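Risk register update: the risk of archive-format incompatibility is retired. Evidence:
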Amino acid sequence: MSSNFSDFGFKAPDILLPSDRIDAKKWAVVACDQYTSQPEYWESLSEEIGDEPSTLRLIFPEVYLETGDKKAIISSINENMKKYLDNNVFQEYKDSFILVRRETESGERYGLMVALDLEAYDYSKESRTLIRATEGTILSRIPPRKEIRKDAPIELPHIMVLISDKRRGIIEPLAKKKDSLRKVYDTDLNKNGGHLTGYLVDGEEDKNSILAGFSALYGDLDPKNPLLFAMGDGNHSLATAKSCWEDLKANLTEEERKNHPARYALVELENIFDEGLQFEPIHRVFFNISLPVFEELLSRFCASFTKEEVKDKEELLKKTNAPGQHFGLSDEGKLFVYTVNGGEKTIAAGTIQLVIDKMLEEKKGEVDYIHGVDVTLELGERKGNLGIILPDVSKDNFFSDMLSDGAYPRKTFSIGHANEKRYYMEARKIIK
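Archived output:
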């Protein structure tokens, strides 16, 4: 067994949590990249919190990225971080993991707070590192996020990273013994976010158990292509942390680089096989395109395809999720299931993305990404539109599909509803 967490690209972080005098329900707020078309959500949240210490004052809600005074907001964030550090708003837990229990409308799920080593992460599509992006990274989204992070003294993660632990040998043993662990927070979440409980994991026995679990998991990997950690949520936040670290390390000695806090990023690990972790496919609607034009584009990226007209949504979903590569299609009141043979990509989302890229390049249509089957089918009924229904995301094949095709196309899946996304609770210093 390996003797060091660093062999697996992570370590036990020094975690900052709000002190006992802080109202945890006002402290924790949902990820900044949610409700981006609903400023009223964030305005209502701000009114609810008032002047109480809150992570809302330490983040930049993305709803304001295009409309707010960015320099003033970033300056205020950094000032609040320093003020919170100086005024003992935080208490620090050294060299510790946190077991996170989240109860939402989708059920109960568990996570583990760790610090991932950014030297073991590469978000490029051809990456062979331990830590990888699951979806295509849009490079233009990194610079505005770097402006927010580059001078910040602390980080607050909404990043969720997946491991594929069928043995359930890492997080689940801790969950079973949670009652024997020290509870460090226990709170309802605002805005219907459910309930959040945190347990301190700092004992040597538990750390050795985690290490043994990762040794077993790592031992199953292809040494030439060892995918251990796959991004769940917060892909561009981790890419931003990586970019900031690359800038910073250029001016550090080799010795300084080894343990600089900015070399790491605080994230929540979750086992993809946790039953409380709900994956939902994100569907597509094509606009201003005919079915023959779509089929001609599709034919460029596979040896052949067949289509079958089906009678209703239930039949469409059943056949779309059958073994093989299938997707559903809604066109002016008719429903079809397509089967792709000999495709350039092994999953339907990959094949459809090739069609999207070519369609946009040749200006033969437009696209939008839609949550929900019913909305997609209804939009597909309208003249000039096509609704594309993608199959469910398979937890069993999630990692193997990444190994086959590289990162998934952007907006392939979503983990839970908006109010089930990660709420900010833990923080970590990222400056010396």
